[in-house]
Specification:
The complex is a heterodimer of chains A (175) and B (364). By secondary structure, chain A is mostly helical. Chain A has eight helices and two strands. Chain A has helices at 30-35, 49-57, 62-69, 80-86, 94-97, 99-110, 126-145, 149-168, and strands at residues 13-19, 22-28. Chain A has a two-stranded antiparallel sheet with strand order 1-2. Classes of the chains: A mainly alpha (175), B alpha+beta (364).
Chain lengths: 175, 364
């Protein structure tokens, strides 16, 4: 493939841009990339996370933005507009106060909005048990993909056991 | 592994990640696991009042002391350290630039097992990290995970069932995990294949940075590769994918090294020995040049060229020739030109000592 700018050199730098759900790609040679100030991956770490976040949130229309910007966290008093400027939330409660705005943002950053990792051990609640089962389901899926059928059968049995235990437990009983 | 009792004790021992041991140490300098955690009822560091941050320092200190994995170590409060001492900690990769500014009640706790440490009141209240030599993600994860579980026994973390661990910046929410390897890729750089490799690393959702983390320049052909996202994947998933990709990079670099040895052995040996010669006899040298020359020597050591110094010595020079380390060693502040002279002396003496040690072990 030839560079889309000079049309002479082979394209070795590739950019993908996603805007309004449409993806555009551009393929250029290193020289043109440098001349146009397009950064190669090795230089890309020089962006500022706040700018990046601000850029991500910025696709709202003005009136929407004004309305959303005034949402305030009841615990720490942080305004959503100020999160937009700094890229930093004020306290753990902000996640609840701004959940409508944060969900799409989290999806754009991580490609997902659900936690699938470890949880505090002291929690010991139904939530922890549920996450454990979810994790096992994820593991089962992976084992099947890798054709590790013996492992998959073990995981399946464990899930069945946990689900049977959950059914047997009286709902609402203290853990 | 005994705990340093004060800053001087810490300074006298080279950072554990520089030991040049562990799997694939000839290519992977170190493996790091970082976990971001916050206390539920205190505002995140940048919104908290100083007295709240003092409270966080005290509570984390108490929890750390009560933990069998972490207890019995050393707590350094940033406000009580000099500017040079704080910078020494940054150069050792123990604290971040943000923690090292010394402006607010922040601290670093180095555990008895000095591979584990906790930064307190960085962007998040706790940044727990394990830093091990070589390529050992499973080991580094086990250390950090155990320490995290113990702290969680006495601290109440900010956590939600949906989003996971809640962090000041949404880019860390979820697992709060950053797993990274510091890898030396000189052959891929020399053969100009590095851009292609970096591009494919980024395409699989991993991130590449320089030796000194975010915003740092890539020097000495050293690359830090880490996971980018923290939501929607378990810690194990993120770590496994970093492990898989790192193994591929190691193989690619190995093949590139074999090719270079086959096609250009003489040029390569010449480059390595010229670099060694410059380090061994220089009279004035900048930190960046040391890092770049060390890269060539490191490649020579890894390829088994006889007569060079051990890997450990090359690794240590990367850190011990940084500005704050030099000034702390000299016991005084120095302007850059003065530092360049002193740096050259430190490098020459270190390599001469390594040559003497090698000579003694040969004759004994």
């Amino acid at each position: 493939m030839l560079c889309q700018i000079c049309g002479k050199n082979p394209a070795s730098v590739h950019f993908t841009e996603i805007h309004d759900n449409t993806m555009s790609e551009i393929h250029v040679c290193e020289r043109c990339a440098e001349e146009k100030g397009m950064h190669t991956p090795a230089q890309q770490h020089q962006f500022d996370i706040a700018d990046l976040l601000a850029g991500m949130v910025d696709s709202m229309t003005n009136s929407e933005e004004e309305r959303v910007g005034h949402v305030v966290c009841p615990r720490c008093g942080l305004q959503y507009s100020s999160f937009k400027e700094t890229g930093r939330l004020g306290c753990s409660e902000c996640y609840k106060a701004f959940q409508n705005q944060l969900k799409p943002l989290l999806r754009r950053i991580h490609g997902d909005t659900r936690h699938r990792g470890k949880a505090p051990v002291r929690g010991g609640t139904a939530g922890a048990a549920l996450r454990h089962v979810q994790r096992l389901h994820d593991e089962l899926q992976r084992a099947v993909e890798r054709e590790e059928f013996e492992r998959a059968a073990q995981i399946r049995d464990e899930i069945r056991k946990l689900e049977a235990e959950a059914r047997a437990a009286v709902p609402g009983s203290p853990s | 592994m005994s705990a340093p009792i004060d800053f001087a004790g810490l300074f006298a021992t080279p950072a554990p990640w520089l030991r040049g041991t562990g799997p694939h140490a000839e290519m992977v300098l170190s493996t790091r696991i970082r976990l971001a955690r916050n206390l539920r009822e205190v505002p995140f560091t940048h919104r908290a009042k100083d007295e709240q941050l003092h409270g966080v320092l005290a509570r984390v200190g108490g929890a750390v002391q009560a933990s069998p994995v972490l207890g019995g170590g050393l707590l350094l409060k940033m406000q009580e350290c000099s500017a040079i001492e704080r910078q020494v900690l940054v150069e050792r990769h123990l604290v971040s630039h943000e923690l090292g500014d010394g402006a607010r009640p922040r601290g670093i706790y180095v555990a008895k097992d000095d591979r584990i440490s906790v930064m307190v009141n960085e962007e998040d209240h706790l940044r727990l990290q394990s830093l091990t030599p070589g390529f050992q993600l499973a080991e580094a994860w086990a250390l950090a995970d155990a320490a995290d579980d113990e702290l969680d026994g006495s601290l109440e973390y900010a956590f939600s069932d949906d989003i996971g661990y809640l962090t000041a910046c949404p880019t860390n929410a979820g697992t709060g995990l950053r797993a990274s390897v510091l890898i030396h890729l000189p052959a891929l750089v020399l053969l100009e294949e590095i851009q292609r490799v970096l591009k494919s690393i980024m395409q699989v959702g991993l991130n590449v940075r320089g030796l000194y983390g975010e915003h740092s320049e890539i020097m000495g052909n050293l690359f830090q590769i880490s996971n980018q996202t923290t939501l929607g994947r378990s810690e194990r998933d993120s770590i496994e994918s970093l492990e898989r990709v790192t193994k591929q990079i190691i193989e690619t670099e190995e093949r590139a090294r074999e090719r270079m040895l086959r096609d250009a052995r003489t040029q390569l040996e010449d480059k390595v020995w010229r670099a060694y010669g410059t380090l061994r006899y220089c009279r004035s040298i900048q930190a960046k040049e040391v890092i770049n020359l060390c890269s060539a020597v490191r490649l020579g050591v890894a390829m088994g060229l006889e007569g060079l110094c051990p890997l450990r010595v090359v690794n240590e020079l990367l850190v011990s020739t940084q500005p704050a380390h030099l000034q702390r060693l000299a016991g005084e502040e120095m302007a850059p030109p003065e530092r360049n002279l002193y740096r050259a002396q430190v490098v020459r003496e270190r390599l001469a000592a390594a040559e003497r040690e090698a000579g003694e072990s040969r004759s004994s």
